[in-house]
Batch of 4 targets.
Target 1
Amino acid sequence: MKLYNTLTRKIEEFIPYEEGKVKMYTCGPTVYHYAHIGNIRSYIGHDILDKTLRYLGYEVTRAMNITDVGHLTSDSDSGEDKMEVARKREHKTSMEIADFYTKAFFKDLDKLHCRTPEIVSPATENIDMYIKIIEKLIKDGYAYLSGGNVYFDISKLDDYYVLTNHKEDQMVVGVREGVEEDDNKRNQADFALWFTTSKFENHELQWDSPWGKGYPGWHIECSGISIKYLGEHLDIHGGGVDNIFPHHTNEIAQSEAYLGHKWCNYWFHNEHLLDETGKMSKSRGEFLTVSLLEEKGYDPLAYRFMVLSSHYRKQLVFTYEALEQFQSTLNKLRNKINNIKKDGEIEENKYNEYNEKFKEELSNDLNTSNALTVLYDLLKDTEVNGNTKLRLVTDFDKVLSLDLIKEDEKLDKDLEKYILAKIEERNEAKKNKDYLLADSIRNELLEKNVMIKDTREGTTYEIIK
Ligand code: AMP
Ligand code: ZN
């Protein structure tokens, strides 16, 4: 698998820390509002990466945070906590806001067929971990207390800007919009790890800490959650390109200072979705949400299809005209697939040929649009029989997740799941020398027209018509 790595600015061969296993972290949403379809584009990108790795045979463990505290409006250390903004806007508690928008977020992901990571953890549930990290950073001289807040001292690192292309002078505070100077900082590029209420008295959520009552900065939550649940070595970490600086830059600084070694090997960033006016925003113009697309009569998967048709490292401009086109192409594609005649035995060589091509395209830095071309080529190929095509489409859709196969085909998938579970049960019985049970499972399947075959490569099956 080849993947572009923001850290080295190169497409590299992906080699996980532990063979065959991938630990992956996705920066989760700030749950102060609905996600816009730009945010969703990033989560579709991560979903494709996650599913591709699984399709290639890796065992993936993925974690994602839910930001329910500490993300200030500037993305840096000035401005107000976005959750506080929402709390005042909606006259609710932070936890009510977080609960409501977290549910809305997962509903959106579900509609886009994005699988939920194994680990999902709200920032507010890991305060102990942040305190542990910050205490060590202070002890080791990487962090300091000033004006009631704890800051990370970036001058203690040789290469704080390792993830960005920028020079230090381009990054100074004041150059970036909306970031105010903070007299408490030794260096204006230092960043907050912990805020005490000495600066933000009205913050609703506060926890006791060795530095007084307060709340964590935004960046520390991702380091804390990632290290707590995925361990000291992370394979892939990502988000949208806006996360590169300051968020991910700060995550690397504090994590590596805390761990004393390199933390994450591959950094994966999605380019933005733009609207016709430029950057997508929750406050400007039409607030584009998944529900809005549905209200206008679109299938959310038409949007997923649109996202997959372009490369994740290219900006994509959203227009309703384009979505309309993708909706109509998706409908045609589904129709075509559902009219395929179920005939012939699976042709192994054809299956392998197309499956390999599909994997190759995805392994080439997730070239989803070329992977879709493999699907179109397959559908046009008159040399491939119906059952082979349907099997391939079913398998491709494990990654594409576009509902390409109709409901009754899904029944077949359920049957396959059932058969595989039975085979597993039978193998277990054979291992335990319980041949009576093994035979009864074989007969049970035979009654359902499923013939089990034991081969040197393992157990396979055939549906007898
Ligand atoms: P937030 O909820 O603001 O923390 O953002 C959630 C995710 O969406 C982050 O990974 C952002 O980098 C990403 N994101 C924000 N805006 C866009 C956009 N216009 N297009 C793609 N991804 C975005
Ligand atoms: Zn993060």
Target 2
Amino acid sequence: MKQSFLIKYGEIAIKGKNRYIFENALVDQIKFALARLDGEFEVTKEQGRIYVHTDGEYEETIDALTKVFGIVGICPTVIKDDTGFEDLKKDVVEFVARHYEDKNFTFKMMARRAKKTYPLDSMEVNAALGEAVLYSFPETSVDVHDPEVKIFVEIRDKIYIYSDEIKGPGGMPTGTSGKGMLLLSGGIDSPVAGYMVAKRGVTIEAVYFHAPPYTSERAKQKVVDLAKKVAVYAGPIKLYVVNFTDIQLAIYENCPHEELTIIMRRYMMMIAEHFAKADGCLGLITGESIGQVASQTMQSLMCTNEVCELPVFRPVIAFDKNDIIAISEKIDTYETSILPYEDCCTIFVAKHPVTKPNLKSIKKSEKKLEGKVEDLFKEALETVEVIEVK
Ligand code: ATP
Ligand code: MG
């Protein structure tokens, strides 16, 4: 074991018994993130703190940890046995020697004595350790008001020394806020939507509608790849792949073409809701944004929403495309999203789709599917393929 990290997490949502749920979920997610890397690691909970001990590569470890929701800060930490105060002085001096090539900095000692039997109190520890550092490195100076470096020394059963804090992603650990069903297309918006909701602790499942032979195997693979990229943050994703071809053809043959997209979207929502309910999901998630395309005007959203009983969460509803793209670049889904494979929606799309669909008219058009679509609907549910994406 070469390196330890103190994991800091937000304290707000974790009062009472929620604390255990939060911490256990965080430990699980850290394990999931590190299992992908080479090297042995251990995640421990010690006196209300979470530590990672690993012999894995430093940069890789940091990179993986900065993707675990719930982590606020990652502190590379030196852990020592308590072998007396003289040893502690040496350890702190060695810590400074190793961590700071350039010793021209101001610092403040931040000792915390959690072990009350320790012979010195925090003030005394600070004074003596500060003196030891100043003595060994005369270039340093103390600034208690606005130091460039804070050196934390926590005296517990063991002694923990750290100074840097690398920023974590924040949010809540996946698995602390129930489950949601993401409608995941190959586009830019829905992976971002899934990422955003996962950041609030929601476990993500996903459903993708494809239309073979109109959409290809590689279009499907693209969605699996996107799910993988979201899973780096969100944890494993159960992905339903629904064959939507026959339903789309039925709509195409029986309904007015300008209403195709809306009716199709309504069927997508119904099918997604079916799997969502079966798995105990508490809501659907889409990448819709007001006004982005004809099927995302307020009127269109109202029509698609109308078929659902579960709440539909649309985290990017008020985002401009550029803002969504910025997130997709940050989470590394953008390059995959812009691969130019055909999408089931674009294939049957009308030249002039309604931008202000009328719900009554849509429902009237859907009547023409009666007696034709029910079996296809059932078949779509029965022939679903389930992929466990990790
Ligand atoms: P995205 O970039 O997410 O594909 P978009 O701007 O292309 O969004 P639409 O194609 O209108 O928008 O889709 C709106 C939303 O409907 C998507 O964000 C997604 O949640 C869902 N959706 C669209 N097509 C599919 C599909 N083939 N499978 C699963 N969900 C889909
Ligand atoms: Mg799309």
Target 3
Amino acid sequence: MAKVAPSLLAGDFLKIGEEIERMAAAGADYLHFDIMDGRFVPNITFGQCILKATSRCSLPLDAHLMIVEPEKYIDEFAAVGAEIITVHAEACTHLHRAIQQIHAAGCKAGVALNPATSPECLRYVIGDIDLALVMTVNPGFGGQKLIPAAADKVADIKRMIDAAGSHAIIEVDGGVNTKTAPALVEKGASLLVAGSALYGAEDARAFVDALHAMN
Ligand code: DX5
Ligand code: ZN
């Protein structure tokens, strides 16, 4: 069964608590936080204060750091309640050290790859990570169309995980909906981030059920 992580970025910020609990009631498994700094990506979203407030909600928090020098903030995001902390390979000069830092802070460690980044950069850390996040759009904005080549990257990483005997799971992020998800799940993705399609769905429960049914 694939798990579902709604991206809060697509919710109504004026009623953030309700928007989270609406997703929990629909059966979502995590709450995905798109943290952007206006440097690694063009957009600026939210930071520690919002994450801290929302850690009182009923869903575990999946923090996707689209920021430069994420090492500076790992401990803070861990302290305010993130269960998973994902850093971008492109943003880390010392990726292995960042992964160790996330674990030392008591969180699950994820590494995200932009669409043009080769899965090869995961080869020597594949046994150390809990999650590989394949960006299926260019990071920075919600509501974009999925880049089809990303599905092949999911398959490549799945092969790498299996060959190494790693326990890492694959998360996909960007342009995920009930039409695009099946090919990604078939290639090995098991955690699906969904923003605009899920928050905009007429029936969020039916949307989550449809993704849960994929394997
Ligand atoms: C893009 C973000 C995604 C995005 C997902 O930078 O990482 O989480 O907001 O939103 P949709 O599903 O609308 O593409
Ligand atoms: Zn994200």
Target 4
Amino acid sequence: MRTLYLIGFMGSGKSTVGQELSKLLGIPCIDTDHMIENVYKVKIAEIFQNKGESVFRKFETEILKQTPVHHHIVSTGGGIVETEENITFMKANGNIVFLKTSLNEIEMRLSNDRSRPLWNKNSYEKQRLFDRRNKLYKESADIIIHTDDKNSREIAADIKEQAGLQSYQE
Ligand code: S3P
């Protein structure tokens, strides 16, 4: 199986759904944000604060390229689509699943979140980022899964069905 890349806005559930799908299919899941923090030994918020977004994007691309291209699920950061090279890499090496979540739902999920540097914006800027990103996610995706009003189990089951995946569990 070619790797399955989960993309979508902050708070769309990529990491949680990745774990759920990993259990369902019996294949490993890697999270690029966790990998960045483990490899560079620094928190994402600190990278943004001390080095800026452009350095974070370089780290993100480096890490994405190190992820296995077979038999894995890779959950990505919401801004993975900001770098064209990342989209090219994911398209060449696997299938891209866009977890589509409404801005209302995201606002609810992230209402108390202070850990995401790019969520710390006013409503107008959030809406603009959301609209711009949604266009990029849609253009990159092989499969689009609507996530509002579904739990991570249901979303994982939807992905399995729509991507025509088999389970590797015994
Ligand atoms: C980002 C999303 C974050 C993280 C970083 C930048 C973005 O990941 O990669 O804060 O640009 O949308 P999540 O999508 O897991 O929140």
